[in-house]
Specification:
The chain has 215 residues and is an alpha/beta fold. It is built from nine helices and eleven strands.
Amino acid sequence: MKQFAVIGLGRFGSSLALTLARMGYDVLAVDTNEDKVNNIMDRVTHAVQVDAMDEQALRALGIRNFDVVIVAIGQDVQSNILVTVMLKDMGVKKVVSKAITELHGKVLERVGADKVIFPERDMGVRVAQALVSKNIMDQINLSPDYSIIEMTAPDGLFGKTLAEGALRVKHGVTVLAIRRGNDVIISPGAKQVVREGDVLVVVGRNNKLKDLEEK
């Protein structure tokens, strides 16, 4: 099982650490603030009050042995960047760093972050998409070109099988699952009939998904 360490327990870091813990993963939560550490201590595997800028302290935690270390330090951009560099120098396998701006993200990539995330920007994108779309309920961006969306089934599909709806042929997208009330139909077959109220989980190119959403 993967082991995660989250450095920085602001809103994003705490939410991430708690979500990973609820999913059953071993999670080490780290922050300099004693109150933040105490607030999360009983809900993750380990929580410690440590200055992430203290290389020896991080080494003592065995940080290099974790599969993924997330640098979720918020407004202190300098610390965020320096901790990222330090972790890579220690030999951490995968460092995921939170960025505030595009420039900050570019710097993190240059200094060796394996993945850069933009929580505030990405949440803004998702909220905007939800506001302008009548059908899309949620969206996961897989890459700049591809996404998975969760959307209410378009009226034109009611009573049709997936084969008759021809989503792959007409729109170039694939239905991964159908959520129907409390039931989830995984990898639905071509003969699966779409009903009113169904929620489709669909993967495809963003432009194709947008075309489908507008139908």
